[in-house]
Amino acid sequence: MPYYPKSQVKTNLYTNGGEYARLDNSKAYKGFYWKNSKGDYYAGKNPQVTPVVKLVVLESESDDETPSVPKKNSYWAKNYPSTVTQDSPGLSPNVYIPKPQDSDYNLGQFERYFTKKSNQNIYYEISKESYDLLNSKDPSIKWQLYLPIKLSWDISGDRQKVYDTNRNIVMKTERDSKLPGFSKIFRKDYLQYYKT
Questions:
Q1: How do residues 33-73 score in pLDDT, each as one tens digit?
Q2: pLDDT single digits (tens) 160-180
Q3: Please, are residues 149 and 183 in contact by the beta-carbon 8 Å criterion?
Q4: How many CB atoms lie within 10 A of CB 132?
Q5: In contact, 23 and 53? CB cutoff 8 Å
Q6: Using an 8 Å Cβ cutoff, are 60 and 32 in contact?
Q7: Is 9 exposed, middle or buried (0-12, 13-18, 19+ CB in 10 A)?
């Protein structure tokens, strides 16, 4: 590995995963990394770490209508649509904590809304209003950067049945919509908002 002056490298960077893969075995990479002035990424805290393993930027899976955010210095950022790079974006959706009403408990369920950052496996709960804005690609919200997710959530009835139903819905959504790690945000608590 060639010598790099301190001004030519950024060291001790960290990724939680979902951003890079190892070039030697194509496996997703989580941990410390560093980058040089050419925009190349390598595993480890600094250039002295051996063996030297180059990292490649992962492209997120999304359709043409909802492009993911380009990573700075990534090889595909140059062809990113100008509608995303030049237009003034709207606001990001805010985190929301739902409060089911008595009518929801009488019905036995309510709708929950979540979002995923297009270029990262980061999820959080949002309001129905934010979901509708994202879904309709309203310019007042950064719809290009977030994927809207909707779930029906059981909150009353047989305790075990409610748990199993909610777990199955989350797992099916994660699998069918290709949302890696979505189930982890529930921390196996599939009885959220449940009342007997």
A1: 989 888 888 999 888 888 888 888 875 444 444 444 444 44
A2: 999 999 999 999 999 999 999
A3: no
A4: 13
A5: yes
A6: no
A7: middle
Question: Among candidates 122, 116, 180, which has minimal Cα distance to 146?
Answer: 116
* Contacting residues for 16 by C-beta, under 8 A, at least 6 apart: 30
Alpha-carbon distance of 10 to 120, in angstroms, equals 21
26's tokens: 């194509």
Residues, the chain: 196
- For 162, counting Cβ atoms within 10 Å of its Cβ (0-12 exposed, 13-18 middle, 19+ buried), the class is buried
Q: Are 46 and 70 in contact (CB under 8 A)?
A: no
SS3 45: coil
Q: Please say whether the beta carbons of 162 and 156 come within 8 A.
A: yes
Q: Tell which phi-psi region holds residue 190, choosing left (phi > 0), alpha (psi between -120 and 50) or beta.
A: alpha
154 C-beta neighbours (distance < 10 Å), count: 21
Q: Which of 184, 146, 188, 182 is nearest to 167 (CA)?
A: 188
Partners of 43 in the β-ladder: 33
Place of tokens 């189930």: 183
What Rg do the C-alpha atoms of the chain give, in angstroms? 21
The DSSP symbol for 113 reads: E
Cα distance between residue 193 and residue 105, in whole Å: 9
The alpha-helical segments, DSSP class H, found in the chain are 82-85, 102-107, 128-135, 159-176
At residue 170, what is the residue type?
Answer: V
